[in-house]
Design brief:
Chain B: It comes from Neptunomonas qingdaonensis. The complex is a heterodimer of chains A (211) and B (327). Helices cover 40% and strands 23% of the residues of chain A. Chain A contains 9 helices and 5 strands, in the order αααβαββββααααα. Chain B is mainly beta. A 16-stranded antiparallel barrel of chain B has the order 1-2-3-4-5-6-7-8-9-10-11-12-13-14-15-16. Classes of the chains: A alpha+beta (211), B mainly beta (327). Chains A and B meet through helix 2, helix 3, strand 1, strand 2 and strand 5 of A and strand 1, strand 2, strand 3 and strand 16 of B.
Chain lengths: 211, 327
């Protein structure tokens, strides 16, 4: 008991502060990794838009309200860990906007799959790069198949590739992919979430570009 | 206290209407951790508490992004720590330390040629791509005597490789001209987004320590390979400390669950050092676990064990536990 009380007496203000912080965690914004580990998807932007001269970052909070709105538009929603600040990259060639890039992570059997999606100014999927994928399924063959199925589709038309409950591909979606891989459904979920979140969190930016 | 006043003032200003431009593209967090270490052989316990401020801001204009600021001042309190960094006045001390504090000017060539000024990790080996700031899990910086330093670098991301070349003061946390230290180091590697990453590094420096600056040179090859939930890391370096030849090997195998909330790792280190007319070998293993309890809390533990050590030294066996909270 004496040892325990000694520990308590020796506790620094920092430790006490740590305990207090626990009490407030439920109302605070989530921040996981240290910010020195943040990396812009420079290589993805270069590959998705060859020859572009610059990009602009627009950081916005993705909060519980947006999570609820995504749930209203899709048969699933964002993971709790996706709440936080996210970046939309406006890609420009000279003074003209030529598209957006957003990277999103999805849970898979082999850990996080991070995909950078290229989006046209009128909110259609036009390209993708695997930023991170530990599965051998993530290869050029899959990427090309996904592009054939997704390219040029808006949110509504992409949603047509998914079953109503979000658990599988629709009949239209199954026509593009073999049934023995889970990756196309995961990538479809990622693309749908990307478009939904972009429209909800950066709607003013998109509207301004379309005027 | 001046640091806290500065931090609180900075946060208040950042949250005020006056600084709405400053808030644009800004992320900030408070980072708290407490760490306990016990040397099982010497029956000695130490601890440290850390309170830090973590700020990240992308400066952007009509012409696009042109700079990124990372600013991480951390207040560190040590309790009975043996062999603390030389910028502490002993093992029971508190100091303001700098993890990362630099601005990277990215407006020159769309990320392919950037200029960094400030305090940053010396580019070398595995440290370049994997963040180990504030974690129990560490790589080989002790072999070179320095992890982060004040200076300048050129860096960038090209289609086939990433690079960073730095010239720094060689004094670590504090800028010091004592013994005229310096570091010239760099790393060239395949893109960090791949599942197989290979890099080549060099280090040429006179690194400041408590008893003066020590000349150190190294050449290294590092490799990272990812397959499903497994991560394999390897770093092999060779060079010399003040003319005494030395080689260093670090190998790590780690596993994460699909949610990536659990991370277990095992490291093996081997050092071969030239002594008086003979070579000295030293090896150790490290076993570690990290658990991301939720979006805010991270708990980790690690056991470090020296297997065979340089002559007439007692082998160490150290257990450490850390609680980290970011809000």
């Amino acid at each position: 008991m004496r040892v325990v009380s000694q520990y308590f007496l020796n506790a620094s203000q920092t430790m006490i502060l740590t305990v207090i912080v626990f009490l407030f965690m439920s109302i605070a914004d989530p921040v996981s990794a240290a910010f020195c580990s943040l990396r812009d998807p420079v290589l993805a932007i270069q590959r998705l838009y060859p020859g572009v001269t610059r990009h602009r970052s627009i950081v916005r909070p993705i909060d519980q309200e947006i999570r609820n709105q995504v749930a209203a538009r899709l048969p699933f929603t964002l993971h709790h860990n996706e709440i936080g600040k996210h970046t939309l990259y406006q890609v420009m060639d000279d003074d003209h906007l030529i598209g957006f890039v957003q990277a999103r992570s999805e849970l898979s059997d082999w850990g996080m799959v991070e995909i950078a999606w290229a989006i046209s100014p009128d909110m259609r999927i036009v390209g993708l790069i695997f930023q991170r994928c530990r599965s051998s399924d993530c290869n050029e063959t899959l990427k090309n198949k996904v592009l054939v199925a997704f390219r040029g589709r808006s949110f509504t038309r992409l949603l047509g590739l998914m079953s109503a409950d979000g658990e599988s591909l629709s009949e239209e979606g199954k026509a593009f992919f073999s049934p023995d891989s889970a990756m196309p459904l995961l990538m479809l979920s990622s693309a749908l979430k990307t478009l939904a979140v972009t429209e909800l969190a950066w709607g003013d930016v998109i509207s301004a570009q379309q005027k | 206290m001046a640091f806290f006043a500065l931090t609180i003032t900075g946060v208040a200003v950042a949250d005020s209407g006056i600084a709405s431009g400053w808030r644009e593209n800004t992320r900030w967090a408070v980072d708290l951790s407490t760490r306990f270490s016990r040397d099982l052989r010497q029956n000695h316990q130490s601890s440290q508490q850390v309170v830090g401020f973590d700020l990240h801001k992308v400066f952007t204009g009509e012409q696009g992004d042109f700079a990124t600021l990372v600013f991480q001042p951390y207040w560190v309190r040590l309790h009975d720590v043996k062999n603390p960094g030389f910028y502490f006045d002993g093992g029971d001390d508190a100091e303001l330390t700098w993890r990362i504090a630099n601005i990277n000017y990215t407006g020159l060539s769309h990320g392919s040629f950037n200029l960094r000024v400030g305090h940053f990790e010396v580019p070398f080996g595995l440290e370049q791509n994997i963040d180990t700031n504030g974690t129990l899990r560490q790589y080989s910086f002790r072999d070179r005597g320095i992890k982060a330093d004040w200076g300048v670098s050129v860096n960038g991301v090209l289609s086939e490789f990433d690079y960073e070349i730095a010239l720094t003061r060689g004094s670590g946390n504090n800028i010091s001209e004592r013994d005229d230290p310096y570091v010239f180091a760099g790393r060239l590697g395949t893109p960090s987004t791949g599942n197989m990453i290979v890099g080549f590094s060099w280090f040429d420096g006179k690194v400041l320590a408590a008893n003066g600056a020590v000349e150190r040179q190294r050449l290294a090859i590092d490799m990272a390979y990812y397959y499903r939930q497994w991560e394999t890391l390897l770093e092999v370096s060779a060079g010399n400390n003040a003319g005494a030849n030395r080689s260093n090997v670090l190998a790590e195998l780690s596993w994460r669950n699909p949610m990536e909330t659990f991370h277990s790792y095992s490291q093996f280190r081997y050092v071969r050092e030239e002594g008086n007319n003979h070579w000295l070998d030293k090896s150790s293993v490290t076993l570690g676990l990290e658990w991301k309890v939720n979006r805010f809390v991270d708990v980790s533990t690690q056991w470090f064990k020296e297997l065979d050590v340089l002559q007439e030294q007692k082998t160490a066996s150290i257990v450490a536990v850390q609680l980290r909270v970011r809000i």
